[in-house]
Design brief:
mainly alpha; 17 helices; 0% strand; globular
């Protein structure tokens, strides 16, 4: 189920035709992904997958942030309702990326220093991490790496006019969440993680599909959809290994931007950790950088700033 079958439209002859094609793609991508997930849930291997419920505190946080003027008092109450979450905010507010002047000691002080959006992003990551526990040697750094990916995505959004930093951060957090969910629900998936990480003759998702008739991109999209994450992020999670779609006209441009930025973020994260580049980067970096309007020199120029952001994460 990794590769989606999307019809290729005829090449548009005019700029207006191109715009119309992109509008049609934008309108159709989320619908096609939703239909695929519904069909797989009804009749396919995903019937056995138990989607973890969205935490009540996250539902409240989204409601508080949804207002034109977010409810700061409610955000503060949510943050203070969990000691560990409060400690996470205080630790970040006093960390090297944000620390300035005297240490902060209260949730209100931490929120003022971090800013509301960064506070909400940290709380979202905390709640997601505790809603989907990870207990397997192959995923021992899963949530740490998710935080690094989310930090890199937020940084890249700052370099890409039009890409919402909050959507980019959510995509970074959720893009691989299907792995721990599959680990909890599917017998033998732990062995698949080992096998997929070792094979060089086929991709990670190809091994998942060969063994289980589904993969973490599909399951991750299901989790994000069930938790009412924005449809553009759901679609990007579903398609984040379909990198050949970047630069085409069958998929919403915003989805393509998230997928392409996700590939760059993954590469930057691996570089930060001293790991070799993955096959996806080797094969698709040119298309991703071209779509985003980035260059290899840009990536080199951002290393110092990214180092601070990732160290904080």
């Amino acid at each position: 189920m990794s590769q989606t079958t999307l019809p290729a439209p005829a090449a548009p002859a005019t700029a207006s035709a191109t715009a119309a094609a992109q509008t049609s793609a934008a309108a159709g991508t989320s619908q096609r992904v939703a239909q695929e997930l519904d069909q797989a849930r009804r009749t396919g291997p995903l019937r056995q997958i138990q989607i973890p419920p969205c935490p009540t505190l996250l539902v409240r946080l989204r409601a508080a942030m949804a207002h034109a003027e977010p409810d700061l008092g409610e955000v503060s109450r949510i943050a203070g309702s969990d000691v560990a979450m409060s400690a996470t905010l205080l630790r970040n507010a006093n960390g090297p990326l944000h620390a300035a002047g005297q240490p902060v000691h209260t949730i209100g002080q931490a929120m003022n220093r971090l800013g509301l959006k960064q506070t909400a992003a940290l709380m979202t990551g905390f709640l997601l991490r505790h809603a989907v526990p990870v207990n397997h040697p192959q995923l021992r750094r899963f949530w740490e790496r998710s935080a690094l990916r989310a930090a890199a995505m937020r940084f890249l959004a700052g370099q890409l006019p039009g890409l919402d930093p909050d959507l980019a951060h959510l995509y970074g957090l959720f893009s691989h969440v299907g792995q721990p969910v599959l680990l909890q629900c599917v017998k033998g998936y732990g062995g698949t993680l080992v096998e997929a990480g070792a094979r060089i003759d086929r991709s990670f998702v190809a091994t998942e599909n060969a063994n289980h008739r589904t993969d973490h991109a599909v399951v991750g999209a299901m989790v994000a959809r069930a938790w009412h994450v924005a449809p553009v992020v759901v679609s990007a999670i579903r398609l984040h290994h379909d990198l050949g779609l970047v630069g085409g006209q069958t998929v919403d441009p915003e989805v393509q931007t998230l997928v392409a930025a996700g590939l760059v973020a993954e590469h930057l994260m691996r570089d930060h950790e001293g790991l070799d580049a993955e096959a996806d980067w080797t094969q698709h970096q040119a298309a991703a950088l071209h779509w985003l309007g980035f260059s290899s020199d840009d990536l080199a120029d951002w290393q110092e700033a990214l180092q601070a952001a990732m160290d904080a994460a």
